[in-house]
Amino acid sequence: MPENKPGQGQETLHKVGNYFDKYDVKPPVDDPEQVTLQSAQENIKAVNRYFKSGTYDLEIFLALLLPAILILTFLFLYRRDAGKTLDLDEIPEKDFDFIEMVRLQKGLEEFDRDFLLQLSVENSIAPLYQILIDKGVFEKIETRIMNEISEKGENASQNKRVRYLRKLKMKLF
Question: What pLDDT, on the 0 to 100 scale, is given for residue 68?
Answer without folding.
Answer: 92
